[in-house]
Amino acid sequence: MQTNFSAAQLADPHVAESEKILRKCVHCGFCTATCPTYVTLGNELDSPRGRIYLIKDMLENGRPADKEIVTHIDRCLSCLACMTTCPSGVNYMHLVDHARAHIQDTYRRPLLDRLTRAMLAAVLPYPSRFRAALKLAGLGRPFMGLFEKLPALKPVAAMLKLAPSSIPLASPMAKPGTHAGQGAKRGRVAILTGCAQSVLDPAINDTTISLLTRLGVEVVVPEGEGCCGALVHHMGREDQALASARQNVDAWTRAIEKGGLDAIIITASGCGTTIKDYGFMLRLDPAYAEKAARVSALAKDVTEYLAALDLPEPVRKPGTVVAYHSACSMQHGQKITRQPKELLAKAGFVVREPREGHLCCGSAGTYNILQPDISAKLRDRKVKNIEATGASVVATGNIGCITQIASAAKLPVVHTIKLLDWAYGGPKPEGVSEQGLAAAE
Ligand code: SF4
Ligand code: SF4
After folding, report:
1. Which of 16, 23, 221, 387 would you label with 205, given CA atoms 20 to 30 Å apart?
2. CB atoms within 10 A of CB 312
């Protein structure tokens, strides 16, 4: 694509980076076929190619964002299916991240939208605030029907719908410290305890620590780590996202210097995609660029790490039929497609892949709150495809997808690690009925 940026504009490294990306796009439109919003809405401006044109026009003319561009960029899930499809290697992720930051800097949203976004950014990344907010959700639930009828309050209704009615206790295992590996030492890793996941399902990290230590891996929970920054990054709040990134880079650098790390284990693929991008996000900060690149190189999804570990034979071979839902951040963001399915199959599960596996479930960070109508359409489509597999349980590697799919599916939805842990001698996953897992034994 031809571009017309001035030398002065290209002096801004963010604009220069976006210009490089724009020039790679040959407007072939292949990406439109796999874009969930184009498939759902049928509007070119809600396709990757349409958004790329809008972003180009805004940046090239040095214009502040307007209502039209905000509407179509807000509808983008950042699922990155377009990057998997694109034959020209267009880095849509970095382009849309830049556009979102530009929107945040130049556009004044309507009051309720501003308040909702400010509240999400102030609550979700902080486990204690998020826990308190979930407790308060019970008070708002009786008014959910009313909120749903008022367009401006639909995000509040969506939040109430997604909030679980009971909140698990905080994990004692996820406190800073070291969990020694059993038997011969096979590695030393740090684990990201994260934010929303540690409140909604603390057992995911507990199970990961338990399985890894049983396999001989020492697991460090570093002092000072926190939210990876993905949630606010996708809202264009760059300063907040970069502050989170720096905090984590510091925490993991201390752990590296103290005893070395073979990997930084991430159990939510949405976080994994962002942490693997820290090197890029902090490339312009001389104090952090090198450290951030080192952290990104060490970041591994837990299934990616386990697949390289040469696992022993499982203790049980359940034979249970599992529908594997590949989160967008797993398959498109990190290109991890093979390892989770192979691990499940090796552990004795029968793995089925739902149709249209490339399409997003509609979770996408805060998308299911901020765009509840499109999100619900994508969720229902996903659930229909999952249920058509005839599986008795759904496995996936991202808490957002677990919450989203579980809000409409009839079958249990669990993190992949819980099924693997069960096969390798751990307890039956919480929330899955004995019958569900035993049915195919
Ligand atoms: S597939 Fe790639 S090159 Fe083709 S229009 Fe989409 S982004 Fe541009
Ligand atoms: S990130 Fe997903 S929703 Fe956004 S343009 Fe690409 S395919 Fe479409």
Report:
1. 387
2. 8
Atom of ligand 2 nearest to the CA of 360: 2
> Which residues have CB under 6 Å of ligand 2?
35-37, 48, 51, 76-82, 92
For residue 155, pLDDT over 90 is answered with no
Helix (H, G, I), strand (E, B) or coil at 425: coil
Report the pLDDT averaged over residues 392-405.
96
Over the stretch 14-59, which tens digit does the pLDDT of each residue have? 999 999 999 999 999 999 999 999 999 999 999 999 999 999 999 9
Cβ within 8 Å of residue 251, ≥6 positions away: 222, 223, 224, 225
**Hey, how many other C-beta atoms are within 10 angstroms of the C-beta on 183?**
9
Q: pTM, whole model, 2 decimals?
A: 0.94
Distance 59 CA to ligand 1 centre (A): 18
The residue whose CB lies within 8 Å of the most ligand 1 atoms, and thus the one to mutate among 18, 88, 92, 96, is 88
CB 339 within 8 A of CB 395: no
- Please spell the DSSP secondary structure of 357-395, one letter per residue: TTS--S-TTTHHHHSHHHHHHHHHHHHHHHHTTT-SEEE
Answer for the pair 268, 399: CB distance below 8 angstroms, yes or no: yes
- Are 420 and 398 in contact, with CB atoms under 8 Å apart? no
| Percent of residues in the chain assigned helix, strand, coil, to nearest 5 | 55, 10, 35
- The strand pairing partners of 221, in sequence order, are 177
Structure tokens at 365: 């960070």
Cβ neighbours of 61 (radius 10 Å): 11
